[in-house]
């Protein structure tokens, strides 16, 4: 078995042993909270996008709750892909119970999503803990690029590569009195092997083997470039939604990020997900003046 197959078995086992609280309130929250399963910055960004008439996908969609809540944005169709068959069955069941008929779920290894899904999506989403299950990010983003329409947008919200350097609670090196200490190399290529049960969502203490990969920021950036995906926004945050790293909030480390990238050249493609004409992924933040702009302003030159 390769690492993808062993991860499939481990994720299915974890989901079979999920904590009741992991899925119990999903329906209620889907019905009562718009974009219920996203953190505030991501929610903000998603609310500024116009999904009406668009086809959206989530890769590594887990039990489907995030994609189902994204459908609040008015997308015409949604498709969630995840390798774990029990999660996909659960996602279909949740969609049916929630009455969300325009959202489908399919069990595939992302790298093997069939060609019928190529050039189909205006938007592809990865959320926390999505991209680490792929050893070769270039292969992953090749599939993303193939599945996006020209001008389509990829959004990744994940934990920051910096987090890989920090000792987590439960590890011998972790010291709550010395939270500035980094212990792991940023450059390590050793896969992360875990048989500890995915305690954040399952009740297992000992589990089948999970294998994940620590990617540097440059790995992510270069894999996007290699596949014709132009970065349009990169935000870093001091908070994370990984329970283990919350102890580091406010210490000064970047703990999570949101990145958007567009298939093709942003200046040349007409398609946009953003609501106002001319508004791109810098959606609502004041733009800092470019160096040239600052010099012109200092010299009394008016800017267009
Ligand atoms: C940490 S979870 C993502 C959780 C998501 N952020 C959420 O909160 O719902 C990672 C997901 O990736 C899926 N996965 C791992 N390897 C995969 C692969 N090769 N292809 C598709 N899905 C995969 C797992 O089944 C799991 O649902």
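^ Assign residues to that structure.
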């Amino acid at each position: 078995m390769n690492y993808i197959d062993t991860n499939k078995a481990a994720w299915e086992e974890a989901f079979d042993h999920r904590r009741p609280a992991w899925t119990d309130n999903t329906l209620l929250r889907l019905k009562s909270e718009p974009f219920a399963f996203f953190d505030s910055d991501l929610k903000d960004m998603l609310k500024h996008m116009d999904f009406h008439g668009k086809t959206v996908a989530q890769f590594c969609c887990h039990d489907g709750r995030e994609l189902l809540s994204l459908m609040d944005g008015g997308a015409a169709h949604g498709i969630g892909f995840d390798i774990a068959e029990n999660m996909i069955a659960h996602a279909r069941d949740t969609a049916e119970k929630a009455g969300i008929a325009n959202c489908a779920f399919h069990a595939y290894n992302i790298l093997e999503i069939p060609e019928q899904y190529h050039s189909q999506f205006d938007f592809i989403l990865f959320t926390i803990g999505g991209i680490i299950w792929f050893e070769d990010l270039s292969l992953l983003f090749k599939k993303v690029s193939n599945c996006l329409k020209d001008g389509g947008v990829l959004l990744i919200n994940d934990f920051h590569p910096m987090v890989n350097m920090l000792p987590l609670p439960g590890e011998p090196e972790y010291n709550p009195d010395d939270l500035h200490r980094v212990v792991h190399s940023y450059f390590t290529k050793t896969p992360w092997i875990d048989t500890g049960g995915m305690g954040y969502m399952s009740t297992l203490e000992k589990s089948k083997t999970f294998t994940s990969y620590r990617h540097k920021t440059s790995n992510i950036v270069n894999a996007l470039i290699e596949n014709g995906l132009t970065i349009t926004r990169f935000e870093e945050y001091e908070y994370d939604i990984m329970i283990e790293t919350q102890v580091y909030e406010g210490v000064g480390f970047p703990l999570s990020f949101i990145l958007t990238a567009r298939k093709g050249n942003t200046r040349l493609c007409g398609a946009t997900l953003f609501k106002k004409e001319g508004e791109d992924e810098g959606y609502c933040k004041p733009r800092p003046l470019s160096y040239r702009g600052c010099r012109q302003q200092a010299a009394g030159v008016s800017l267009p």
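The longest strand covers residues 148-159.
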